[in-house]
Amino acid sequence: MEFKSDIQIAQETEAFHINEIAKTAGVDERFLELYGNYKAKVDYNILHEKADTPDGKLILVTAISPTPAGEGKTTTTVGLADGLKKINKNVMVALREPSLGPVFGVKGGAAGGGYAQVVPMEDINLHFTGDMHAIGAANNLLAALLDNHIQQGNQLNIDARKITWKRCVDMNDRQLRFVVDGLGGKPNGSPRE
After folding, report:
1. 31, 47 in Cβ contact below 8 A?
2. pTM of whole model > 0.85?
3. 162 in helix, strand or coil?
């Protein structure tokens, strides 16, 4: 008996248009920021319109003991939502943006696994809506601005040894956890760990 891979299952799945999913969840189209046909962000202003709606119940799926294959939080979350939907509960799942770990084969898929996963799997595993990249770029722009100020004369007398603003990379790469940069002499920046 042959078992299908996660990617085979994901690619054989017939995805619903995001407008259909939003309608099922009671989200009006005017609160959606579409990212193609299958993804969208929900505008937080929907909270004002839904202020009189009773609160739902929250189930938080978390883990503490990472394994090489991941902890299975997403798979558990999606499976639980599928089970609750099966018994006619009104269910909504919110997943955080996944890391790039799955791309490098160092953990399980960020979209879940088997028949308990979210599609489009490839988009979720790679970059989802691009928010994490935008946050990283903004953070690193501020770090570069600070370093450039020091390089150009440091009119604010910032003590470069006390800067705690770090650069960031959204990547599961142990090699990049502790690095020292700026070692090329004054023209190339200030050394920083």
Report:
1. no
2. no
3. helix
Each residue's pLDDT tens digit, 83-136: 999 999 989 888 765 555 555 555 556 677 778 878 877 777 666 667 677 888
Label residue 87 exposed, middle or buried (CB < 10 Å: 0-12, 13-18, 19+).
Answer: exposed
Cα–Cα separations (whole angstroms), residue 1 to 4, 5, 113, 115 = 10, 13, 19, 17
Residue 74: count of CB within 10 angstroms of its CB? 24
Query: Is 40 within 8 Å of 32 (Cβ atoms)?
Result: yes
Q: Decide the pairing of beta strands 40-42 and 32-34.
A: antiparallel
> Which of the two residues, 159 and 109, has the higher pLDDT score?
159
* Residue/partner pairs of 60-66 with CB below 8 Å, 24 or more apart: 66/107
The rounded distance, in Å, linking the Cα atoms of 73 and 62 is: 6
